[in-house]
Amino acid sequence: MRYSLVELAPVVPCADRSAALELALRAAVDAEGSGYHRIWYAEHPGALSYASHDPATLIAAAVGRTSRIRLGSGAVLLNHHSPFGIAERYLMLEALAPGRIDLGLGRASSGPLVDHLLRRDRRAAASDDFGEQVQELVGHLHRAFEPGHPYASVDLTAGLSGVPEVWVLGSSGHSAALAGQLGIGYAFGAHINPAVLPAALRRYRDSFRATRFGTGKPQVVLAVNLVAADDERLAHELTWPARALRAGGRDRPIPTLEQARAELDRLERARPSAIEGGVVPAQVSGTTTSLREQLQPLVTETGATEIIVHDMLTDIDLRRRSRELVADALGALVPGA
């Protein structure tokens, strides 16, 4: 069973952004040593909670510190970018680390003000053309434009032996059919919208067709907010910073464990953090043993071949130990059919 990591470069109170970025790069080295298959850096424009504003910058820096682990974006928010610009940027990364670059694509609002600031033409009405953007980007990477298309003469791949592996990330199921029709991988945010997980994966598989843009078979990755410790009580408490951030607003640094304990009421602190009946809570916790017991039925039911881990831990020692234990748990799972 493959296991991977999404890194947000969480910013802690009274610390500068440089420290968060250094920890995010160190995470790639640690993940490689623990057998993680890939690490994806997130895109959070304008965020105070996370320092990972531009994944390409972190990917480029991580290339020089690692040798095996795949490096990618989780995700480029394509609604804020030009497909041509992203294709060119990630082909440059592929040239720096051949065979190791992933291009995860998504769409999301960064809030009305930041969305406005990111737009080049602020006079035109905003439009949702994500599907067209993804298809154009894939066209640039694989020179897949039909003869006579105005972009068919543009070759961004000259001198390259390979291209980034493209994924579509989603949490509502709307992008599932797009990923399936293009024959590329689909990563579902199970920690964001677990209720639609079965329908989204069914839609992906039903629409899948093999193309030269992917591996030729469906690839399903589940993104789960997952923390671990040597005992169940501490593991559960490690979910509190993420809960406090959700409850108190995201426009601030990540609460420490002590801050979260003070901010959350008794009911919120006690809210379950275990997968029960196939329902994935916003935060999942456990020991190595209990995580295996929780996750194996989910992997079997969904047919997932990889879990990508997301957490909001900022304590260096607890974070490193959690990711080591998570690796032990996930590495023992049997992939779904």
UniProtKB/TrEMBL annotation:
Residues annotated as domain Luciferase-like: 20-304
| UniProt superkingdom | Bacteria
Q: Which InterPro entries match?
A: Bact_Lucif_Oxidored, CmoO-like, Luciferase-like_dom, Luciferase-like_sf
Record protein name field: LLM class flavin-dependent oxidoreductase
Q: Which Pfam families match?
A: Bac_luciferase
Entry similarity comment: To bacterial alkanal monooxygenase alpha and beta chains.
Which source organism does the UniProt entry give? Pseudonocardia ailaonensis
* SUPFAM superfamilies recorded: Bacterial luciferase-like
